[in-house]
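Case study: ABC transporter permease.
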Amino acid sequence: MRYLASRALLFVLTLWAALTVNFALPRLMPGTPADAAIARLSQNGPVTDATRAAIEAQLGVPGGNLLQQYLTYLHQVLTLDFGVSYTFYPQPVASMVGQALPYTLVLVGAVTVLAFVVGTLIGVAAAWRRGTWLDALPTLTGSFMSTFPYFWTALLLLFFLGYVLHWFPTTGAFSATTTPGFTLDFLGDAAQHAVLPAATILLTSLGGWILGMRNAMINTLGEDYVTFAEANGLRGRTVALRYAARNAILPNLTGFGLALGGVVGGSVLVEQVFGYPGVGYLLFNAVIGQDYPLMQALFLMITVSVLVANFLVDVLYGVLDPRTRR
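Here is what the predicted structure looks like once written out:
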């Protein structure tokens, strides 16, 4: 219980610090959202102070001193009211995030879980059969694929499978002629549009899970309790999974918690290349347009997700390895 209470207290303190940083970062950026609109208007002549004030009022630019803005920001966080988007005015921030989040959760979330499960199992098999082709093939392939950046792999798949072979759509999450909804036509069309972005994320992340699990597993196989289990005549699969893999998975589990927490942030580069309307694509446009409400909502959502994932991993650590509770 003390272990759980200490983890919960650390979670609350970290969350407060993250909220404060999330408030400060957009305000440290040069310029304001009104400057872009004023720059366009100034081409037709000088802009008066009254015009600037009207533009700022229309965009909902925060007023008052920093303390007043900070208190208003905390109230908005508690009520989940982030105002309207500057870039996509007058759409509410909450509705825009709600539209983009399902695409990111389905795409990045499903691929992250799949890559972790498949990569971990392959890493276990490679370590258990080390020195054989079952070890060399996934290790070399994973190392090779991990060297390719996200955007480079995305461009290769986009060019060959999209433009040359015309196997998959090249942009968007669904066709313009398809009406979004829980229908077979829409789900099939959305799945076809998600193949290339999903393949990009899977190919570039799978190698890391394989190598991480393989190296941790090899170190664990040299422990005394594994040797004792083998000496007792237990089956190889039992020793590999219940003794070696259970302890070797702890470092990979930490990485999985971070990756799973970052799922809601999407993959900015991949979504930008494919024009996929997820959270990463929305975040890119928010930064370009200096959209404070949208940026703060997205940063807050990503931060809270990572903190919650880390908290759950800490709790799971205490279950899998009782030594951490002491």
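For the exam, be able to explain this: The radius of gyration is 24 Å.
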